[in-house]
Design brief:
single chain, five-stranded mixed β-barrel, binds zinc ion, 14 strands, OB fold (Dihydrolipoamide Acetyltransferase, E2P), Thiol Ester Dehydrase, Chain A, mainly beta, 315 residues
Length: 315
């Protein structure tokens, strides 16, 4: 069959022969549907536990995961997926990226039900060229049963590809102007927030004058009571790292990896995202004390950042 460019693609024909082949037959979930896993998942997602005790539908894939120890060898698995990947690797399509997932929910899952599943290679696309490179989209479908009754279907799609050649660097002249940080979107609802940072180096937290609830980022109304009336409270400065990531990849223009981005809980109780400065990024820890500071980037943009407590401001 010809690909998008009109050329015949023998590899595609070989890959397409995998459509419909079984990857897992009579796989079983490691645990029956159970209340502790439902509760942990709901807590992690910030989702209320369904009052009837059933599992949220979007937990579907959880019940067939292998966990840290993986699936037992064999366990209904065929070599289909490995063989398909082997063909692609051998042909130079060695990189992979997950692109999307689709689920269908047919019946609610309830504690005590036993999970079984079958997986097939559903579709292989003709060769496509994307911004990442050229390759093939592979769609797998897993049918998940609870006590033998089809409860849902999970489709997962990956692109297996050969990365696009990097642009030649030595011959490329340096860009005339260094890339600049993306600018915040300033509108009528948040202009005061950015003005206070820029002019006064103060971080103003919005406070509902109806019920006193604090909020950050700024919003036109109160999530707690619905009131549109508000005033502000300047953040005192101290905070604690609530969570963080260290960015290594992908590189973004105007950012110089690695760098730490933290969700900081301010002393007032609201949380704010910002870079952590004044400490090597591999020393950032959840629970570490930090102090609000401000950093001027690109000469004219002031952003709030967090300085590890006890380290000197660079000025
Ligand atoms: Zn309120």
């Amino acid at each position: 069959m010809p690909d998008a460019s009109g050329e015949r693609d023998p590899l595609y024909e070989e890959l397409r022969a995998y459509e419909g082949r079984t990857m897992v037959e009579h796989g079983t979930g490691k645990d029956p549907v159970n209340t502790p896993m439902i509760r942990h998942w709901c807590e992690a997602m910030g989702h209320p536990v369904p009052p009837d005790g059933s599992a949220p539908a979007t937990m579907l894939q959880v019940w067939i995961m292998g966990g840290l120890s993986g699936h037992a060898p064999g366990a209904g698995r065929t070599s289909t997926y490995d063989d398909l990947f082997g063909l692609l690797d051998a042909a130079g399509y060695r990189s992979i990226v997950a692109t999307d997932c689709e689920q269908e929910y047919l019946a609610p899952l309830r504690p005590g039900q036993l999970i079984s599943y079958n997986g097939v290679v559903e579709a292989v696309s003709p060769r496509k060229t994307t911004a990442l490179g050229t390759g093939y989209f592979l769609t797998t479908r897993t049918d998940i049963r609870a006590d033998g009754v089809l409860a849902g279907t999970h489709r997962f799609r990956v692109l297996k590809y050969a990365p696009a050649a990097k642009r030649p660097s030595p011959a490329t002249p340096p860009p005339a102007e260094a890339p600049r940080r993306p600018r915040p979107v300033v509108n009528r609802d948040n202009a005061g927030y950015w003005q206070a940072i820029e002019r006064d180096r103060r971080l103003l937290i919005q406070r509902c004058t109806g019920c006193g609830t604090l909020r950050l980022p700024w919003l036109p109304g109160c999530n707690a009571c619905g009131s549109p009336e508000w005033d502000t409270l300047p953040a005192a400065g101290p905070g604690t790292v609530f969570s963080y990531v260290v960015m290594h990849h992908p590189p973004f223009p105007a950012f110089d990896p690695p760098y730490a981005v933290a969700l900081v809980e301010l002393a007032e109780g609201v949380r704010l995202l910002g870079n952590v400065v004044g400490v090597p990024c591999d020393k950032v820890r959840v629970g570490a004390p930090v102090v609000l500071d401000f950093q001027v980037v690109d000469g004219d943009l002031t952003v709030p950042v967090f300085r590890a407590a006890g380290t000197e401001a660079a000025g």
